[in-house]
Amino acid sequence: MAPQAPGRGLGLALGAAAGAALVGAVAWRATRPARRHAIVVLLDGPAGPAKRGLALSHERGAPLEALLGAVAAKAQLQRGALVLHGSASKAPLPPGGALDAALDAEAAAAGGTAVLLATTAPGGLSAAARAARPLSAPPWAPRWDDFVKMWDRQQQLAVQRISDNGLFTSSTTHPDWQTGRGLLARGFNTLKLSSYWGLVLAKARGFMQEWARFPPGSVVVDVNEWLAAMASDAVVFAATGWDMRNLERKGCGDAVHPFLSAFKFGLRFALGLISPVEALGGWGPVLNPLTSTRRAMEAKFAAARKVCEDMVEMMCEATRRGELGGGARSVLSSLLCDVSPSSGQYVRQRCVYGHMINLLVAGHETTAASLGFLIYYLAANPQWEDAVRAEARAVLGGRGELRLEDLPRLVTAEACFREVLRLHPPVALVNRDAAAPVSLASRWLLQRGQRVAVLLAALHRDEATWGGRFGDVNAFNPDRFMPGADAGRHPCAYLPWGMGVRACIGQSFALMEAKAWIVAVYDRFTLRLPPGFVFKPSHVEGGAAPVLEGLAVQVLPAPGARLPPPVARAPGLFGAAPGGSGSAPCSRAGSFTRHSSLPPDGAEPPSTVAALAAANGDGAPSSPLRGAAAAAAVAAAAQLFDAPPGSPPRAAVSGGGAAAAAAEAGGRLGTPLLVLYGSNAGTCEAFADLLAARRRRRRRRRRRLAAPGGAAAVGGGEAAPLAAALPGAGAVAVIASTYNGHPPDNAARFAAWLDAAAAAGAGAGGVTYAVFGVGDSKWETFQAFAKRVDARLAAAGGSRLRGLAGVDVSGAGFAEAFETWQADLVAELLVHFNVPQLDGALGAAPDGGARGKQRVILELLPDTHPGAALETVVPQLQAMRGRGISVDGLPLDFTAHLLRVTAARQLQAADSGRFTRHVELALPPGMTYVAGAHLEVTPANSPHIVDFALGLLGLKGDEAVRWTPSAAQDSACTPCSFVSSSRQALTFLAELSATPTRRQVAWLASACPCPPEAAALWELAGEAGYKDAVLARRVTSLELLAAHTSLLAVLDLPALLNFLPRLKPRYYSISSSPRTAPNRVCITVARVDFTTPTGRLHRGPGSCTCHDVEVGQFVLGTVSDLQSAFRLPADLRVPVVMVGGGTGVAPFVAFLEERDAARRAGEALGPAHLFFGCRSPRDFIYRERLEAWRQSGVLSGLHVAFSREGPCKVYVQDLIRQQAAALWELLDGGRGVVFVCGDARRMAPGVASAFCDVARDAGGRSDGSASAWLGSLREAGRYLEDVWC
User: What is the 3-state secondary structure (H, E, C) of 1187-1251?
Assistant: First the structure.
């Protein structure tokens, strides 16, 4: 039975302009009422008319005075001087009865809307306006940026009950979406997709092998669940490294993971699509007068939500422990640990659940649903099934399995899948809200906030686009997507993946998965529909996407098929099959190899590694790029973000591997190479990494400037001169993608600067450059930004080393294309700059053997040593910058200084039971800071744990060791090293109190020479043993060594330091202002110490370093620029609202110190309110200073919440709600700024909710409008957070 045609009562309004089309506005084809004129007024000025217009309407027959008054009010102009001209006639509008005729003529000239020019100049219109041709299309025609996706309607918010504020279920303007999208997209860039091919192929193969066990002619009745099992396995494995094994569960007759059914129930319940009878399993619970039906359904929903939450929490914790991900950077680990390239922020902890649920659900339901429809249409159209099978066998060429490079050749399979998406897009309706007044097709005027609905079913069945030679638009015909069929087709006539910035990030993954499944299944099977099957799409079996209800198929061998031989399934793994015992054999081919993240016997322990690099840099990058071309790179990498408008980009430069060897030759000639990349999804960044160095160390929160060898060092200020950014004597390589026609997020400011330089015809004089573009030819804006960079650099005076090159990632061999370009570029650079060829291959590894695998190079000496003085070591480390390749925890750009403690005091009462210390430190000459910045402190291990480690190793602490932190690049130089003591090495070179990962415990077990102790360690390495006996009890590696002393035979001091992680720097908000004392900085540090369940005293290295240091001693640290907007407004008259708990008050002390200095200097101050939370008055730190500032007027309001004092707990959010009226006046009317500092898990969400309540209670807004108001504050930089987990 064929599907029914959709209703024809809706038409499509398609508007396009400015090189980008906006489509899908669904509207009734009704004419605008003739009694009103639709008008847009452009304001004319000396430089010509404005690009954006004021939309309004004018009553037919109303006088000109009324129109002038409306324009003056909307444009905030003086009525007396205002004159309106027609854009076509260029004449002033006539008064009286001729006005309507003039407006009609202007509307006819501009496509249905009268376009007027408004001026107040005595001479009339500007020359630019008079010279302009009559407007055939309004200059405000829509662009993608004019429409944003808002998730704020009632039904949308209902979905968030199960999905939270995730990637697909949040507004584009929301900071959480902007932060998460930048990271999630990287997980599905083209390079990442290549790494997923193996698991996708394995799942497609597993599906085929499971179905091969059915007797020929069997009818499979639960097809949708089979497809969901395969698709969910694939996307979860790709995103986290965890194999849910739903295919195997289903093949054994076991239930699939409860997450699949839990989310479907939760979504249907949230949307009101499930009846009480269905939800509760019959009429009995519904008719029972002693139970509440609603409460029972809510309880079931809560249980379903908990299943989803527990699964995400399990994956998060396993990822943190190193048990998931297989050593690679997974999508989940990126969400947990990385800074978003689009916002410069970390993903908030509470948002991880929403992003993961959105990704996992959308990543499997849409693919599974589309494959179900594909099964139906191929069974109903056997000629296309035969075509798909013939193509699959031709591509396989007698091989047993598909290869990644075969995918572009599967044009028929892709055409069939795309045709299914045309007929049944997984998301039927796409909504966008107008961000500004805009015209659609010159017929409909939309005001800001009005919603446009895109009915994809109607768009994809438009007769003019999809009919004609292809026949009935409702019929399945893949010819519509065969090569050449899209000639002349509007690029936005087909939008199954969404549109604009909200387009699906996983569309390439889904297409890859579909092709692998099609080849695996249709090469071996013929699928037929059972008699009487009724075509009925519905949500009964599906969740977010509709599926074919009750889909069942008869599975038959395909003609000429080579079915795999049955292989016995491992018994008892998931339980017995129905009707059999646990040992009943089932056939399957080798799909029970478990994914393991544990290192093999004898492997090095895990350590922190750079993205795309193999562990500790001793292997090729974990990407498809291999060979001498990838290794033959020249120095220096840079990023295109953090540069302000009007200034050139700042760069972080480093070198390594063979790249450093090549840079050495270039360095002797003073020839730098600057590698710049612009990337949203991470592909260009990966290419830049490969070009710059095999082993490049990046720091997440701070970017310093270093110049190894001949690499160019870019100036340290944001207004660094252009000559310092683009080396006139060297070369620049730019690798960039295009994002919907625009630059990538991290290249936006660079693009603005480059446009200005090109317009001036100067700025890149003497610069030799080459540009490589990365893009997808399916997009209309293919390589647009790369072409723009290439042209602008030439216009700014640059000289092309090579013509513009690029790669189409939608085809096969894109990685090889980059390798070829990279090799050619290096060869041409060597010739162009007369750099002598190095001896040996450029790809030779700089560090071989064990040395290349060590994080710390340490040698025990036979002598004793008291320990090197920090006053001697630190200057030498700073002097080493640029001299070599870092092989330990210290980066090459070592910039820490010895900061002398000048004052310190405890802030809390002696009986509070807590300790918070105020520490003042002297800054060295040249080090500056601003209020709101951070101090980066390099911690040291506590003496008691160092003594414990020395005792385990049988050392006294005065043994001499030689530490080599860096290998010099110049072969004539001796590697720089220091002689120190064993005590000092244990104090600074590794974190002794760290809990080992499960992988590390397993490594210890494999290395343990004593069988009983090894067995005990293997027990601890198991999932339950690790969770209960190691993680929950916070057991350290040293405690494991103490309990299993045979390990000391294989772990000496150097091996132990390499096994343990390095001591990471700690960051503390600065609590002082440079206006008060520019040469000193203050920090506020709460001491972290407690007794673990094992009885060990745990002392936080960072906090205890700051608490133990005495006045006159040193702390190793530096002022850190975290690229944060958490700064006081430049105009101190702007109202500020500060919210902090505990030590979260630290930056606000700095702000108030700054305001106090301004008050003393006679500057005007705006209102300032501080909401501070602590447990009791004994914990009220800085009380005297805060109350003094309240008395002096520096602080307008001091609101203190005590959570453990009095009959009930009071938090800062409670006080915010109490002050709703005053805060609303400051924020809505006074343009105030909110600062929040403190706990990200509990306080920050509570504070945000409180401010939404302020907008609702004091501002009279609805819940949705209040949430949108808070989002607008965030977007405008008026709601700023500095929070931590």
Answer: HHHHHHCCCCEEEEEECCCCCCCCCHHHHHHHCHHHHHHHHHHCCCEEEEEEECCCHHHHHHHHH
423-to-2, 5, 515, 778 alpha-carbon distances in Å: 12, 10, 18, 20
Report whether 997 contacts 1036 (CB < 8 A): no
- Asked if 929 and 835 count as a contact pair (C-beta separation under 8 A), the reply is no
DSSP letter (8 states) at residue 1046: G
State residue 729's pLDDT score: 65
Name the band, by pLDDT with cuts 50, 70 and 90, for residue 242. Answer: confident
Beta strand segments in 969-1102, E: 978-981, 1066-1069, 1080-1086, 1089-1091, 1097-1099
Which structure tokens are listed for 816? Answer: 């090889």
- Sign of dihedral through CA atoms 576, 579, 583, 584? negative
Q: What are the structure tokens assigned to 868, written together?
A: 């090197």
Identify the pLDDT of residue 828. Answer: 78
Q: In degrees rounded to 5, what are phi and psi of residue 796?
A: -85, 5
* Distance of alpha carbon 208 from the chain centroid: 35
Q: Name 109's bridge partners.
A: none
Question: Distance (Å, rounded) from C-alpha 528 to C-alpha 376?
Answer: 8
β-pair type (48-49, 897-906): unpaired
Query: Do 648 and 705 meet the contact criterion of CB atoms below 8 Å apart?
Result: no
Reported as type and span, the H/E element at residue 757 is helix 748-760
Sequential DSSP letters for 557-608: EPTT--PPPP-BPPTTSS-PPTTS-TT---B--S--PPP--SPPTTPPPP--
Decide: 635 and 662 in contact? Cβ < 8 Å.
yes
Spatial distance between the Cα atoms of 981 and 712, rounded to a whole number of angstroms: 37
Length of the chain as a residue count = 1285
Q: 274-296 burial string, b = 16+ CB within 10 Å, else e?
A: bebeebbeeeebbeeeeeeeeeb
Q: What is the pLDDT of residue 17?
A: 27
Distance CA 604, CA 616 (A): 9
pLDDT in tens, 482-532: 998 988 888 888 999 888 788 888 888 999 999 999 999 999 999 999 988
Phi/psi of residue 114, each to 5°? Answer: -70, 125
What would the two tokens of residue 475 be? 């019929």
The whole-angstrom distance between residue 672's C-alpha and the CA centroid of its chain comes to: 32
The predicted pLDDT at position 640 comes to 26
Residues 6 or more apart in contact with residue 859 via CB below 8 angstroms: 961, 962, 964, 1054
- Chain centroid offset of residue 316 CA: 16
Is residue 587 pLDDT above 70, yes or no?
no
Instruction: List all residues 6 or more positions away from 472 whose beta carbon is below 8 Å from its beta carbon.
Output: none
